[in-house]
Every structure is written in structure tokens, then in C-alpha cells.
Amino acid sequence: MSSVADSAHASPGDSRFAVRRMTQPDVATALEWAASEGWNPGLDDARAFFAADPHGFFVGTWDGAPIGCVSAIAYGDAFGFIGLYIVRPEWRGKGFGMHLWNAGMAYLGARNIGLDGVLAQQPNYRKSGFVLAYRNVRYEGVACTSDEAADGIAIADASGVPFERMLDYDTHMFAFPRAAFLRAWLAPNREHGRACVALDDDGHSVRGLAAIRRCGTGHKIGPLFADDLPTARALYRALVAGVPGERVFLDVPESNPAALALAVEHDMQSVFETARMYTHAAPDVPLARVFGVTTFELG
Questions:
Q1: CA–CA separation, 228 vs 225, rounded Å?
Q2: Domain boundaries 4-110, CATH class
Q3: What is the pLDDT of residues 69-78, one digit of tens each?
């Protein structure tokens, strides 16, 4: 087992250090680390995260024991997303993180790569070729029920909507298909979450998609995709109605004024910001319809 004593004079050049791909249990361990960092992941995120790209999670080990990690999710041949970048506190400042970072970046290769990083780390990400696109703002509030009408918008449980319709809508909003991830993320048997779909008047066309999941603290909503503010509002209220009085979090692109308005009208407060950055031009995402980012770890 690794220890603080081991880390005192450790270096990445030592044969006791290695980088390998994670298993799903490794991802669960990484999410426990993320929780200890205050990132507040969902209680059952590991399965859906791993489904997104089973080859895209890397763990650094010392004598076989995990000491750091990074995720590098490939969405097809054109796009990837870096996240879950953690080195355990006692192993920091020795170069292990850079080896993990390089492993993730090498795996994603020439793809356009995105990330959500803390604002203070922007200069470091620029050194790796990332350019700021916009900021995402995390809002926190308390779930409350509402007696207001939903403007005639039909909200259905995701389990009752054909998956291909939801995938088509999500692909347009995210700009790249992520079928394996979405199937796990919206699964009706997900123990700590729920997903809803807003349908058009014909009851067939999707006009919004949203999910909520329980985290170590409260609940996170993501994604929250909608054609307009009334639809986003109806989806938001449908989701929080199931967790009245509990804390909820919504990660909003700062460049979408309607999304900011949704957060404000529900008495949510800004608590955290990230820098969304890309190595190439920002993907053609309709940000005016993104009311909530899916996750900061996977995009």
C-alpha cells in the first residue's frame, strides 16, 4: 500500500509508478476522491461515466495503489472531453499529474478537446493549447413546488419516450452522439435519479430533455436542454417537485441569459464558476437552448 512516507521522495520516473486504464470500480474510487475535493458527484455516476468510454479513464498507481486519475472521454473520432483530474494531496507537486494528463491527451489525439476547469487554472490549460470559449456558473437553491401552470407543456417520464428520439435531441444539443452514456444516464432503473422529456403538442416531437440525480449533498440537474425558457421552466419544476425542500444545483452557461433568468427566478445563488475551454473552435452547440450542463466532468 502507498503511504505518505512513500510519497516523500517519490518521482514519476520510479518504476513503482505506472499509469493504466481504470476499471468501473476504479471510477467509483475516483468519484469518492472527487467528493473529498468538494466536487459533489452523483451517488451512482460511476456506471454512466464508465459507459461513456470504457477506454477513457486513466489511473496512476504507486506500487499498485491508486494515487491519481484523469478521464479523457472520446465522443467518436472528432471530439473528446478531459475531466476528473485528481492527484491525491500527499502526492501532488511531484509531476504525477502531468503524466496522467499526458496519457489522457495522447488517447484523445487530434480530436477537438474540451474541459471545464477552475478559472485560476486557465493559464496552465492554455499551455496545453486550450482556449476559453465561455464560463459556466453553478447555481444552488432549494427545491420548491409550484402551483403555476406549465404553459400547456407536456412533460413525460423518459422511460415512456423512445430512446432514439431522446438521442437525436441530445445529439443536436451536445453536438456529438453519446448513445452509451445517455442510455445509462437516463435509465429508468437508475436508483438515485430521474429523467423527463418535454413533448410538442403532437406528443411526438421532443422539445426538451432533463435529468436530476442525488449527490452527496443535494441534487444536481443536468442536462437541462430546452427549446425555450417556458419549456426549461416546466422541466425544472417537474424534476424538483420530487425533492421538495432539498438543495439543488444547476450549471448554467453564462452566455445564455434565459438560463440565468431561470436560476434567478427560482431564488438560486451563484456558488462556483468554471472556464469552458477547447483546443479547437467551440463546437456548434445551440447555447441558447442549454439551460443546464450535463456534467463538468464529461461535458
A1: 9
A2: alpha beta
A3: 999 999 999 9
